[in-house]
Amino acid sequence: MARAPPVTPLYNHRPITFPPNQLLSRIKTKTKTPSKISAVHVTAMPSQQHHHEAQAQAQAHPKLEIIGGAMESVLPALNSTLARFPYNPFPLIGWNCHVETVYAAYFRSLPDVKLRRECIRTQDNGSVALDWVSGDDRHLPPDSPLLILLPGLAGGSENTYVRHMLVRARSKGWRVVVFNNRGCGNSPVTTPQLFSASFTGDMREVVAHVATSYPKANLYAVGWSMGANILVRYLGEESHNCPLSGAVSLCNPFNLVNSGEDFRYGFYDKALASSLRKIFRKHALLFEDMGGEFNIQLAANAKYVRYFDDALTRVSFGFKSVDDYYSNSNSSDSVKHVGIPLLCIQAANDPVAPARGIPREDIKENPNCLLIVTPKGGHLGWVAGDEAPCGAPWTDPVVMDYLQHLERVAGLASHGNSVDAQQSTEGLHSVEV
Questions:
Q1: Is the peptide bond before 389 cis (omega within 30 degrees of 0)?
Q2: Whether 43 contacts 20, CB under 8 Å
Q3: Which candidate in 55, 152, 184, 192 could, as Cys together with 156 as Cys, close a disulfide (CB 3.0–4.6 Å)?
Q4: Would residue 136 show up in a list of annotated catalytic residues for this protein?
Q5: Which segments constitute the AB hydrolase-1 domain (predicted)?
Q6: Are residues 381 and 108 in contact, defined by beta-carbon separation less than 8 angstroms?
Q7: Which of 164, 337, 379, 405 is catalytic?
Q8: Beta strand pairing status for 342-347 and 28-29?
Q9: Alpha carbon distance 67, 373 (integer Å)
């Protein structure tokens, strides 16, 4: 296996590892006019004091577990948000993970948003549906930051948690698009293949399409549950070449084997299998006369997700068995390769994405990653905060402030690069450190 490239630190600064008193002795100029140097910008390695400050800031939010290689660079920007929105589970609902999960799924409000659908054809002649906010193509500037939303398994733009995030981002002047997987959100299915937790091909084509449509915009993405797993796998595969400027992962199962062990044959398993059966039955004619290991009858009547994946998903994507599919679809293996800013938010009591699957050590060692674990929240619940119990999840203002912080940093970097480019033509031509 090829060795993974080294992880690029957040904001692409190159730290200097030698002591400051040796700096001048290591500068070699390639010109005889050093007097034209106006400034030398040095980014030093994080000091022990900065490390202690970051630890103190994390301890200022005792109800949350906050770790990650990006603590020192990102957590200060989120401190005010976490202080204004402390995590306090809503009484009665937030005491039990199952109650919270079910309540959020059935009783969370659905914001009314008019959407415009765009269907794009993929390279294998499949189709995915992109839902944009109607009118934004005319009302927003072409350089408005653009947010791609990836719903959970069998989810789409009709999900409440997706709509709330969409409305919040749109209120900040962001352009938003929901990426509906094949067959999800009533999107068309044009080939005998749906989606999987391991497949990132459609995500790659969606990002390329969106980037071509809005070349002046910075691109970001937020994924929930299986959408988060796909997103993090995509980030790891793209690594330093990722066209996104930042991303957020919510309720990510990370380890599908652990996740399957926790909810197998229970209420959630049956509910998700029911959603998969509905999608399949709408397009069953495409799968008629499929040979090989496909089991069409089992897929149409699968009582549990594992049965559906064994009959259809793992065959479509070339896995030898359903266990082979699950063990090779983990996004936990991708975290160490992520080369852009990534915020992960998990609930310690998530019944579908168990906390033991979180790749904490890889998140700590990656300077681009930050993890926040709430004590409660269930799966896609987080019934807490000012809008509880029927409004937006507690996570939404944290996610939005994080994304806006990244956009501000991207704007400053862009401005700084243009200034540096101008100064380099007027001053010293080359300084080697």
A1: yes
A2: no
A3: 184
A4: no
A5: 145-380
A6: no
A7: 379
A8: unpaired
A9: 9
Q: Confirm whether 420 is a catalytic residue.
A: no
Is the model's pLDDT at 133 over the cut of 50?
yes
How far is 216 from 214, CA to CA, in rounded Å? 6
3-state secondary structure labels for all residues of 241-258: HCCCCEEEEECCCCCHHH
Q: Which amino acid is at 331?
A: S
Q: Work out the percent of the chain whose per-residue pLDDT is above 70.
A: 83
Our separate counts of H helices and E strands in the chain read: 15, 11
Q: Which helix (H) or strand (E) holds 431?
A: strand 431-432
Q: Which of 144, 225, 249, 334 is catalytic?
A: 225
**pLDDT tens-digit profile of 343-376?**
999 999 999 999 999 999 999 999 999 999 999 9
CA angle 34, 39, 45 (to 5 degrees): 120
In this structure, are residues 308 and 284 in contact, taking their beta carbons and an 8 Å threshold? Answer: no
Alpha carbons 230 and 237: distance in angstroms, whole number: 11
Active-site residue identified among 131, 202, 350, 396: 350
Q: Are 117 and 146 in contact (CB under 8 A)?
A: no
Tell me, yes or no, if 350 is annotated catalytic: yes
Q: Cβ(378)–Cβ(104) under 8 Å?
A: yes
